[in-house]
Every structure is written in structure tokens, then in C-alpha cells.
Amino acid sequence: MTDPIVKSRFLSQPYHAAYTGALKIVTFTVLSLLALTTSAQKEKNGKWIQLFNGKDLNDWTVKIQDHPVGDNWGNTFRVENGVLKVSYDQYGGQFKSQFGHIFYKKQYSAYLLVVEYRFTGEQIKDGPGWAIRNSGMMLHGQTPESMALDQDFPISMEAQLLGGNGKDERTTNNLCTPGTNVIMNGNLFTPHCVNSTSKTYHGDQWVRAAVLVIKDSIIKHIVEGDTVLVYSKPQYDPNDKWVKKANLKGGETIKQGTISLQSESHPVEFRKVELFDLAPYLSSPAKLQAILQQLSKQKRS
Questions:
Q1: Contact residues for 266 (Cβ-Cβ < 8 A; gap 6+)
Q2: Are 172 and 160 in contact (CB under 8 A)?
Q3: Is the residue at 287 inside a domain?
Q4: Please, what is the average pLDDT of the chain?
Q5: 111 in Cβ contact with 213 (< 8 Å)
Q6: 119-155 as b/e: b if 16+ CB within 10 A
Q7: Domain residue limits at 70
Q8: Is there a domain that residue 13 lies in?
Q9: Beta bridge partners of residue 189, listed in sequence order
Q10: What pTM does this model have?
Q11: What is the CA radius of gyration of the chain?
């Protein structure tokens, strides 16, 4: 199908997604999916999961390029004053292409993921130009244990988070595809990155971003209540060297995976990282539509 990229506060476009097992066709309407942000609150048949508890990183695993799994080199990822900080003040003044990710302990297949983030300070010396005020949420990713020691990014889809430079337009919640391809506007999309239709967020303001992920069908990027990017059928890139080394099948769709946050040389903070698990609702299109409508109406602060 062709998935239009729509920017509006209320969405009424029906989407059809193929699944295996009992669920063959899911048709659902997504209204305003980001009147939500934080504060764990019980729903009728589910609850928000606080991936970041504001206290520690016990539920997370760090993998930094050229360092073994679990080595939080330079204390890159830390908790200070209730926020998850990504910092480089213990790097000795040089980044040296040590790209990092912090992975949540559990894998998910269908969910609504919401973060609040902001960029602070200056980029570390020798960080690449494209990484200024740059971070991301990695979706349907491989596990940190399966990454090569010198691997820079996990095989995944990246919801790329960017900050403005104070003068130029620079959208956020874009898409980058390390080791993956997707279907966009009915066609196989193979370029590495594509911009969303979001506005630009300059300075150190907090920004709310979300992604709606339904297994290997629809994925939507949302910023401050507006849908800014839509694509479907995430799949492994048969030409990617890390895909080949991991013995993954090129073209195979990706139905679930890890969630991780990036360290790419510019300091960034996350004060909220929460998720609503939609997997229990996939067997019933009616229940899925109902819970999405509940979430759309919820006011969260």
C-alpha cells in the first residue's frame, strides 16, 4: 500500500497491515497520538512502562564502539538530577568515533514509545559535522551482545533526533536505516536517511517525540502531536556488511527487536522514556483501535 506522510493533529487515515497467525488484516484509525508524554498511569487493559525510572540505569546495557558490551566507557551514560544524560566530559577531549548506544533490557514488537529530550552544551572535539545536536531512538534493533566489537550502529531503524543550529531549518524525528530498508510511498526506500516534516527546535528546549510501531507493518514518527513521517515493512538490507556478518537474511521483514538511545558526540538529555505495549491487542483489530483511541485522548504530564 501507499502510506502518505501526513502532518495533522487528528489523523483518520485507515491503514491495512498483514500479519501471520490469527491476525491477517488490521484496520485502525490513529487520532492525536501525542497528547501523551509521561507519568505512569493505568489504562483499561494495560499500562505505561517507564523504561527510564529517573533513578538508575539498571535495566539498560551499554555498547560503545571498540568497547565490550556492558563497558560504559567514560561514564557516557549516567543519571543526574533525575535525567538520563549522555556526556563526553571523561573522554579526554576527543571522541575518536566511539559511537555508543544504551539498550533497554526487553525486546518489543508493537508499541508506542515516547521520549522527552533536549540537547545541551557543545559537541566534543573531532565529532563529525553531521552529529552536531544529533541523537536517536533505535527501533527493532539487534541485541548489544550480537554486535561486533568495532560496529558503530546496531542494525535497526533510527528515529533520528536533531536540534536546530539557531538559524537553519533542521527537522527532527527523521528516519535513518543502519542495515535496513523500508517501504515508503509504496516503494522500497534504500537511501540511508530521509527528513520528516517536523518544525525545527532550536536551543535547549525540551521536545516530545514518539514512534508508533506495529510489528513489521506500519511505523509512524510523531513530534509534539503531529505525525511527521510514515513507512512500513522494515527489512534487512542484503547489501549491508553488518547484516552479512550477522548471517541475517536480506529482505526479511523485522517484526521485533531492541530499543536503544544513542551517543553520537553531542551532549543530550532524556527526562522521559516510556512505552505502552500494544502487543496484547494485535489479535483484535477492534481492541487495537480502541486502545489507540484511548491513548490519543489521554492527557499526560
A1: 119, 121, 122, 123, 124, 127, 131, 132, 133, 134, 135, 163
A2: yes
A3: no
A4: 87
A5: yes
A6: bbeebbeebeeebbbbbbbbbbbbebebbeeebbbbb
A7: 36-278
A8: no
A9: 182
A10: 0.86
A11: 18
- Tens of pLDDT, residue by residue over 228-284, are 999 999 999 999 999 999 999 999 999 999 999 999 999 999 999 999 999 999 999
Does 20 map to a domain? Answer: no
234/26 Cα distance (integer angstroms): 17
DSSP structural state of residue 185:
T
Helix, strand, coil distribution of the chain in percent, nearest 5: 10, 35, 55
The Cα 26–Cα 5 span in angstroms is 19
pLDDT for residue 19 is more than 50: no
Distance CA 84, CA 270 (A): 5
pLDDT, position 300: 64
**By C-alpha distance, which of 53, 69, 124, 130 is closest to 102?**
69
Asked if residue 12 belongs to a domain, the reply is no
Identify which of 135, 131, 119, 110 has the alpha carbon closest to the alpha carbon of residue 260.
135
What cell does 5 get? 506522510
Which cell numbers hold the place of 268?
A: 543530550
User: Domain total for the chain?
Assistant: 1
Helix boundaries (H) for 172-284: 241-245
Q: Does an H or E element contain 219, and which?
A: strand 218-223
From CA 205, how far away is CA 224, in angstroms rounded? 12
CATH number assigned to the domain comprising residue 80: 2.60.120.560
Secondary structure of residue 101 in the 3-state scheme: strand
Nearest to 172 by CA among 199, 138, 206: 199
Structure-block grid coordinates of residue 201 = 527546535
Residue type, 62: V
